[in-house]
Amino acid sequence: VPRQGIAEEGPGPDHVGDVLFDELDTPDTVRDSELDSGILIQEEIILEVLPPRLLNSHKGQFGWLLVTGGERGMSGAVRLAGEAALRSGAGKVTVATRSEHAGLVNVACPELMVRGVESGDEVADLLDAVDAVVCGTGGRVRPWA
């Protein structure tokens, strides 16, 4: 039965049955001979890159990120991006999303600063204040985004 809501650009999930992984009884020496194409991020790695903050530090010392997006019905994407930024070490994160989503995003993650916006002019006011911007999470291709 085809799943509902899958975009026409990506119909693969509608044509796939069970996905299985089989190591094919390959010895570790074979896998060890291949170059890593990625790493599993573990606490030790994070501590090397992001050492613990000093007790007297302030969130303003660790950058300010603006996350924009969240078209109607897509508030989760901006919230997840903002929350990931906080967990990754950003000091302050402001989420600019549709006004109808602002309260929902803030209740789900109160450590985010959330601003309801309905136009690009409202976002433009923030651009000079922040250090970095993430654009379009949950934006879809619509005029508001």
Give the H and E element order.
HHEHEHEHE
Q: Strand order, main sheet: write it out.
A: 3-2-1-4
Oligomerization status of the protein chains: single chain
Q: Residue-averaged pLDDT, rounded?
A: 82
Taking the alpha carbons of the first and last residues, their distance comes to 33 Å
Roughly what fraction of the amino acids lie in strands? 15-25%
Q: Looking at the structure, what is the overall shape?
A: flat
Number of helices: 5
Low-pLDDT sequence parts: 1-8
Radius of gyration (CA) equals: 20 Å
Any overview of this molecule?
- The protein has 145 residues and is an alpha/beta fold.
- The protein is built from 5 helices and 4 strands; from the N terminus they run ααβαβαβαβ.
- The protein has a 4-stranded parallel beta sheet, sandwiched between helices.
- Helix 4 links the parallel strand 2 (92-97) and strand 3 (113-116).
- It is flat, with a radius of gyration of 20 Å.
- The two termini are 33 Å apart.
- Mean pLDDT is 82; it is low at 1-8.
List keywords for this structure.
145 residues; alpha/beta; 5 helices; disordered N terminus
Structure, briefly:
The chain has 145 residues and is an alpha/beta fold. Helices cover 30% and strands 15% of the residues.
